[in-house]
Amino acid sequence: MTDTAPPSGEQQAPDDVVELRVHGVSGARADQVLDRPNTHQVAGDRSGGFFRPRPGYPDSTGPGGVVLEVYRWSDLPSGTAARTLSLVFLLPFMLSNVAIWMRPARRGPGTGVKVLCRLLALNLTVLYALSAAGVALDLIAWKCMGSSRCLMGRTWLSWLGGHPVGLRLAVLAVVPIGAVGLVWLLGARPGRSYEGFRVPTGDPEGDRLSAVGQWDAMPMVGRLRAIHIAVALAVLDLTLLTARGAGHPSAATVGLAVLAVLVLAAGAALLCAPELLERPGTAHTTDRLTVALRTVACGLTVATLGVVALDRTPWPVSAALPGYGLIVGWAFLAQMALLAALAVLAPWRGRRDGGRALLHGLGAPVIAAFAVGLSSAFSAELVYRTAYFLNRRAITGSPMDLAAPPLAYKWALFTFFLSMIVAALVAAGLTLLSLRSRRRAAAAIVARDFPTAPPEAADRMRRVERTIARARFTEWLGPLAVACACLATVGLATSLLALFGLQPSPLAERLLGVPSGFVNFGLTVGSYLIAGLVLALVMGGLFAYRTAEFRRYVGVVWDLGTFWPRAAHPFAPPCYAERAVPELAKRICYLAERHTGVLLSGHSHGSVLLAATVLQLPPQVRRRVALLTHGSPLDRLYARLFPAYLGRDVLQEVGERVGWRWLNLWRETDPIGGWVFAAHRPGDPPTRAGPSDRVDRRLRDPEDVVAPPSDSVPPPVKGHWPCESDERFAAAVRELADRLRAERRT
């Protein structure tokens, strides 16, 4: 096949326009997006491919005679059940990575926010390693294997129970080491299919949205990965050496502990130098530093295991692994300090945006708080549930417990229980508080849309009003998220009480008069709530990529989180845009050379992919491209959540790049998509004249509240569903295709 010959199945016409459709989070099949039963793949692979109707079948073209084609990318962030489950368990890491992209719009590189986000991401890795160490070293090796009652009837543990403490700790240290390797594998495995699509140009800050898919993130991810692995191993070593050195430490123990602290300090220092981490290409000095740090940490771990296993000095007598609870408490303290600094710095360094930001400039600290809260909840549940099992399914808080969980985790569970109660009350309060205004606005919209509706349509109109009122709750998600993040932060801060040895039950009874039985009830319920949350995330992750209706709402979280490159946490799921955007750009360039024009049609998140792609097209290609978006969250969500990378200026640039051959269709009933530049509701005052004023077109939804003569039921409410089957969408396709043809002829 030569460079000029079209692939099999692609037919060239002298005056044809290709409509390239990009679906949203629904993950629909190619035949569903094209609304044609017989399709075949013309480019790409199983994960991401381009499809067209089979030639020779009737009705293989679209409105206005355009050539139909679809880019199906839904398997890039998901694909297999294993990948989907990995997204669930990597959720805290993914959220911490999203936080670094949510800084407010301002001049400058935003170094302070980036450094704090990366230090918080590192703290998540530390807490993950500590939770694995808490299960293997504190609960099993130290507490359970040191108790004959705990080992009774457990042959799978008793084989190691009679051996020295040091040997038990050294053997079971393999568990936290393997846990770090597991998340490394889960985070890196899907990224291998993206490697052939990276274009190593530009820099991480780049040209805002155009940086996505344009710069090679792998060198920086490799450096971050080396730092996180080194710090995780150093924390494990410090945990073992602190326990070994309690009482009468040897010179070897002290020396190795000092070296572990130096590794921790070096890892944090490297994260405070963004110019080194973000240097494009293979920066030999930076790479050598991070690899050397990881190598030193690995050697330190081997030496630590040897000292712990072979040192015959008597171990101190203690109910828990010496020093472990203190280390966990300091990790929680570091989290709170970093979150507080980020909450102060992010809005202070941002510029005013007229109140458009969905999280009011607090996007980075809010999402970081959710990441920290989830990580702490997962860690606490893992340790508490293991202790519950080892203690014969009972934790009373008394000294008779065989394997009691550390205090910090008990506080985390109890405050999670309280936070969930308060969060539910806050959500209910905001819902009721906003209900009147949302219903009033919805009633006005419905009255303007259907002024001549007959009396028998009153029930139908009320249902439409309720749908619009629910869709408008999206604007209240910002205050709700900020309130919940504050609750999570306050709740986690109470975990610091563990540093002072304060138990939840007696403190609550002494200060608040709360009976100790309620605290134990809260611990149990909090544990079950977290277990239920994990189960819901697992089931949601599976159903989100197997059920289109469910994915339409849940899948947006995964697709939004994995859209951005890994700039904070190296164990987060890989960025699928690193493949999708370059792949789309290459295909559009190919089509533009062989056809009159290319009409890019994007639904929901597909419009975001297309916006990033348009910013990367060369000038000679952009002159032959038009853009049609529908159900688009470009302004309603992305521009408000990521103002530094996708603000109004970037949207203006997208319009200019395509010569304002851009139409955006939106519905009032859509809870995700909306207008980009102007609402254009009936009765709205005229906006200022300009090309952006002609982009948005509002679609009345439903089309009517009474049944047409040809039907027995009224038209359905479509909400966020794609518009391809709507005649108004077909009219927009014909209009843009005619503009492309006319401009090509002139």
From TrEMBL:
Transmembrane segments: 81-100, 120-142, 165-188, 226-246, 252-277, 289-310, 322-345, 357-378, 411-433, 476-501, 521-545
Alphabetized UniProt keyword annotations: Membrane, Transmembrane, Transmembrane helix
Signal peptide: none
Disordered, as annotated region: 679-722
InterPro entries (UniProt xref): AB_hydrolase_fold
Biased composition, class Basic and acidic residues, residue ranges: 691-703
Protein name: Integral membrane protein
